[in-house]
Design a protein that fits this description.
The protein contains eight helices and 15 strands. With 303 residues, it is α/β, with parallel strands linked by helices. The protein has two domains: 191 residues, no CATH class; 77 residues, no CATH class. Strands 1-2-3-4-8-10 form a six-stranded mixed β-sheet. Strands 7-6-5-9 form a four-stranded mixed β-sheet. Strand 2 and strand 3 form a beta hairpin. Helix 1 packs across helix 2. This is Nuclease-related domain-containing protein. InterPro entries: NERD. It holds the Pfam family NERD.
């Protein structure tokens, strides 16, 4: 049972938005491409996990904080007796393992993913104690890309390659009893502690004025569209979307990019490209947010 669906990280979504609204430097493009590749790998893992019909509670993309240390867990499988922590790596190409690191053919060194996962296991273990739970935690690092080869890698039960994953999950599913709701409370406690607002420190610098304004197509990210009273129609791919949903989606993009700028009707109107009547913008705002200080200085928040 999936209790927390997977979604793009904040930094992934910010880089995606900036890529279309202002452009990225070479280093930022590399960072963005790594985010895309990592997310694609996690989705590939999800497909295999879902096909296994494994019994358990699944939490994806947990961002937790233990003593001011933030750590992301790609996937947790909570069973009655054990928590399985999956660290998913979408590396492709040839690597050599030595001195507790992975070395690419280019010579670049990568941190040992098993050591990374073990640190997360330790953080999660301490959090479970704090929450009053004593479940065993088993770590598994999954190299999900079919074209990933690592030489001189010590044999570890904690490492799985793409071809091994379906069989491992099938075997695991065969050993698990039918899942009860015994640990549903634990799963819900972890979801509550997920920090969806965490913003890493390595974000690119950007400002409101420098970004292109307008509503991006949900399907192809184009800013070119025609509109009717109820819908917008992309001029590039033909995608149709309800106008109200498109405006709301664009406002949410603004809030993600600029959490410190008050959300007013005027700001939302400008952000959406000055292409909609302010009365239409106001209706979307009032339908989805709480208004403060009605009048000239009004602004909108979630609460």
């Amino acid at each position: 049972m999936i209790l927390k669906e997977r979604s793009k990280s904040v930094i992934h979504r910010i880089l995606e938005s900036l890529n279309h609204r202002t452009g990225l430097s070479h280093a930022e493009k590399v960072q963005y491409e790594n985010q895309i590749k990592g997310f694609d790998g996690e989705l590939a893992f999800d497909r295999i996990l879902n096909e296994s019909d494994i019994s358990g509670l699944i939490l994806n993309d947990l961002l937790l904080n233990t003593k001011d240390t933030f750590y992301q867990i790609d996937s947790l499988l909570i069973t009655d007796e054990t928590i399985h922590l999956f660290e998913v790596k979408n590396y492709s190409g040839t690597y050599v393992y030595k001195n507790d690191s992975l070395y690419a053919s280019s010579g670049h060194a990568l941190q040992d993913p098993v050591a990374q996962a073990e640190r997360k296991r330790a953080y999660l273990h301490n959090l479970l104690i704090k929450l009053g739970h004593t479940l065993d935690i088993q770590v598994c690092v999954v190299f999900i890309h079919p074209d990933c080869y690592i030489y001189d890698l010590p044999k570890r039960e904690t490492i799985l390659f793409y071809g091994q994953l379906p069989g491992h999950l099938k075997k695991l599913a065969g050993t698990l009893p039918k899942q009860s709701d015994e640990n549903l409370n634990l799963a819900q406690q972890l979801i509550i502690r997920h920090d969806d607002l965490y913003r890493p420190t390595n974000l690119p610098a950007y400002s409101f004025d420098q970004l292109k304004k307008g509503i991006r197509c949900f399907n192809c990210d184009s800013f070119s569209y025609n509109k009717s009273r109820q819908n917008i129609y992309c001029n590039v791919c033909g995608h149709k979307e309800e106008a109200t949903k498109a405006i709301y989606r664009s406002i949410e993009e603004f809030r993600m990019l600029f959490p410190d700028i008050p959300l007013s009707k005027e700001v939302a109107h400008t952000w959406c490209g000055n292409d909609w009547k302010k009365s239409r913008i106001r209706r979307v705002l009032e339908s989805n947010y709480r208004v403060h200080n009605r009048g000239r200085g009004s602004y909108y928040t979630d609460d």
